[in-house]
Design brief:
Structural class: alpha+beta
Number of strands: 8
Strand content: 25-35%
Strand order of the largest sheet: 1-3-6-4-5
Shape: globular
Number of helices: 4
Helix content: 25-40%
Order of helices and strands: EEEEEHEHHHEE
Radius of gyration: 16 Å
Largest sheet: 5 strands, mixed
Length: 189
């Protein structure tokens, strides 16, 4: 994105070829990104408010004060994007308020990382709106912290890594202990 005032950011879901349940045990995994993912359509706000809507969760916007975000203060689906904002601030990044509309075609509860796609799309949107160039490897750690500490889900780092680091036509060989990655070609090129 070149315009830091508004934009649309996308992050894919993932499937896994190898290493299911080994990521939170510091093992090796081999996920790949899906065509399905989450989209965050976002506009910058200067009032310190995070306003969240979702096509999958009808209802009025959730209006959250960025300064008041802390683990346990937000529940339901909004905890995921709120946790990302909290984790970015905790990592020392100055992010603006934002109005974010979420849409996703990753089926919830299907083991395809719908929550990580949501978190990563929001992380890309918030850093994009702020004009920040945060390395994607760092964003994987920040978004995992959001899920672990803010939402309270004891996940590993595979889902966020797949969403942010996979390249088209490749699987991502990830050492979950060292966080070293290798792009592994899939199919014929």
């Amino acid at each position: 994105m070149t315009d830091s005032a508004a934009g649309v950011w996308f992050a894919p879901g993932r499937a896994n070829l190898m290493g299911e349940h080994t990521d939170y045990n510091d093992g090796f995994v081999l996920p790949f990104a899906l065509a399905q993912g989450a989209t965050a359509t976002a506009t910058r706000r200067d009032d310190g408010v995070l306003s969240l809507t979702s096509s999958q969760q009808p209802g009025p916007p959730a209006e959250l004060d960025l300064a008041g975000l802390a683990p346990g203060t937000v529940t339901g689906w909004t905890a995921y994007p709120a946790g990302v904002a909290w984790a970015l601030c905790a990592a020392g990044y100055d992010i603006p308020g934002a109005t974010i509309a979420i849409d996703s075609d990753v089926p919830e509860g299907a083991g395809l990382s719908s929550s990580a796609a949501l978190e990563c799309a929001v992380a890309l949107a918030l850093t994009g709106l702020a004009g920040l160039d945060v390395p994607r490897t760092e964003l994987t750690v920040i978004t995992r912290r959001a899920e672990n500490e803010f939402v309270g889900v004891p996940s590993g780092i595979m889902d966020q890594s797949a969403s942010l680091l996979c390249q088209e036509g490749h699987a991502l060989l990830l050492d979950c202990q060292s966080l070293e990655t290798t792009q592994v070609p899939l199919g014929s090129h």
